[in-house]
Amino acid sequence: MVSFLALLLVLYVWHGLGVTIGYHRLLSHRSFTCPKFVEYFWVLAGFLALEGSPIWWAAIHRAHHRHVDTELDPHSPRYGLGHAFFGWMSAETYAPHVNPHEQCKYLTQDPIYRFLEQGGNWKRAHALNFAINIALRVVLLLCFGWQVALASALAAVLVLQVPLLLNVACHIPKLGYKTFATGDDSVNVWWVGILAMGEGWHNNHHAFPGSARQGLLLHELDFSWLVIRLMRFLGLISWLNEAKVPVPGIIPLPVIVEEERLEPALLGD
Q1: Of 46, 128, 176, 255, which one has the fewest beta carbons inside 10 Å?
Q2: What is the 3-state secondary structure (H, E, C) of 103-127?
Q3: Domain-wise residue ranges, the chain
């Protein structure tokens, strides 16, 4: 049992970092640059957590930032908790304002991501993701036994729930606190920060969407940021966008960043 729980924890962390570092901070916001093999390592971890097509994920997330807490936001709790948690995934095609060729055209140039996208057909892309995830667990079952396969599958299912939960909890003001006057409902929620490897500092993220760092105050543990710092120390990151805000309290924008680039896409507009 101990070995099973240890393996489950390791896989949960790997898949969780795949979502936070790979899908979110790297693909969706381009908050740092790294070699392709590093990118694929983290994106694979997210893909094997049932997160779906990387292009689809990034396009949806960038639309969320562009239209946060309005009727065009793909998953704002203002328009129903069920829709914000899972209902938004029932759509079969992209809405006009969620166009991946406009939102994240840099990803559509990657042949692997284009294959996983399946030409923008959500049903086929989700089916492909599901099939690959099932096939992996079957291989693990045949090669390493049911405990390894079960730990892998359970970790993936648990990690899948975290960003869905974040979409709801971190946009309900009474559940958290604001550090920045962003003008939307985003709040920092400490327990989401723990479950989501540092993604729960969501008000910080909406204030600095292009920052690779989301936990800005001393008590805001951001495990994903610690891993990103380690990668930078190891020479695996060539450029990094980091928000540094030393003073707590309700702070007005604009954004303060280190090594800021001028392309709007880098700031997750």
Answers
A1: 255
A2: HCHHHHCCHHHHHHHHHHCHHHHHH
A3: 2-267
Write the single-letter amino acid at 154. L
The span from the CA of 199 to the CA of 113, in Å, is: 24
Non-local (6+) Cβ contacts of 148 within 8 A are: 7, 140, 141
CB 188 within 8 A of CB 165: no
Encoded tokens for 136:
């992996």
Compute the distance between CA of residue 62 and CA of residue 103 in angstroms, rounded to an integer.
Answer: 6
Query: Residue 243 carries which DSSP code?
Result: E
- How many distinct helices (H) and strands (E) make up the chain? 12, 4
Tell whether the model's pLDDT for residue 69 goes beyond 80. yes
Residue-wise pLDDT for 39-60, tens only, equals 999 999 999 999 999 999 999 9
Exposed e or buried b for every residue in 228-247, given b needs 16+ CB within 10 A? Answer: bbebbeeeebeebbbbebee
- What are the tens digits of pLDDT across the range 93-146? 777 888 888 888 899 999 999 999 999 888 899 999 999 999 999 999 999 999
Find, among 182, 180, 258, the residue nearest to 220 by Cα: 180
DSSP 86: T
Query: What is the Cα–Cα distance from 214 to 64, expressed in whole angstroms?
Result: 17
Residue 113 has which token pair?
Answer: 């991501």
What is the rounded CA–CA span in Å between residue 38 and residue 34?
6
